[in-house]
Amino acid sequence: MPPRKKETRMDTYTIYTISENGKVIYVGKTANDPRNRWTEHKVRARSLSKHARPLHYHMNTVSTDHKKFPEFLQQIITTTTDKQAAEDLEVAYIKAFQTHISGFNKYLGGGTKGKPVKSIRPQSQNDITTR
Predict the structure, then answer these.
(1) So what's the pLDDT on residue 59?
(2) What pLDDT is stored for residue 67 in this prediction?
(3) Distance CA 46, CA 43 (A)
(4) pLDDT at position 123, please?
(5) How far is CA 9 from CA 5, 37, 45, 78, in A?
(6) How far apart are CA 78 and CA 63, in angstroms?
(7) Which are the contacts of 124, defined by CB distance < 8 A and separation ≥ 6?
(8) Splitting the chain (131 residues) into consecutive groups of 10 residues, what average pLDDT does each group show?
(9) What does the DSSP 8-state code read for residue 27?
(10) In the prediction, which pLDDT does 53 show?
(11) 52: buried, middle or exposed (CB in 10 Å: 19+, 13-18, 0-12)?
(12) Nearest CA among 5, 18, 30 for reference residue 54
């Protein structure tokens, strides 16, 4: 009997947004099913557990229905099997939607492993350069 081939697992990474009344307020990345990730966000917003983040407190405060959170919508932007591409895309979309400035992304990608927002926010209009 020939040896069995080792099964390789290929993760799929999903970049998604969370919008409030049509305005993107958060960009995320997950290797899990994006529907399950959205459910996790809603559970954390309902319970405000120790894993709750400012986004979840905001959802809890704003929403009129803590079962469905109808004011908020998760939308998938893209998927990839390349982990580095997913991390780069998450950062690019956070910058594009400016959710590190006027939303709930505290870091430029990678959860707490990314670059803290304070290191990339301009201090004044004079710090903004165009290329």
Answers:
(1) 97
(2) 93
(3) 5
(4) 34
(5) 12, 20, 32, 20
(6) 27
(7) none
(8) 60 97 96 97 94 95 95 98 96 96 88 51 34 25
(9) E
(10) 94
(11) middle
(12) 18
Cα–Cα separations (whole angstroms), residue 120 to 11, 42, 49, 90? 30, 29, 29, 15
Alpha-carbon torsion angle 23, 28, 34, 40, nearest 10: -90
- Categorise residue 98: left if φ over 0, alpha if ψ from -120 to 50, beta otherwise: left
Nearest to 13 by CA among 37, 31, 40: 31
Neighbours of 27 (CB within 10 A): 27
In angstroms, rounded to a whole number, what is the distance separating the alpha carbons of residues 19 and 99?
10
pLDDT of residue 118: 45
What's this model's pTM, rounded to 2 decimal places?
A: 0.78
DSSP-assigned states of every residue in 55-91? HHHHHHHH-S-TTT-TTEEEEEEEEES-HHHHHHHHH
How far is the CA of 70 from the CAs of 14, 20, 53, in angstroms?
Answer: 22, 9, 19
* pLDDT, position 71: 96
pLDDT at position 107 is: 87
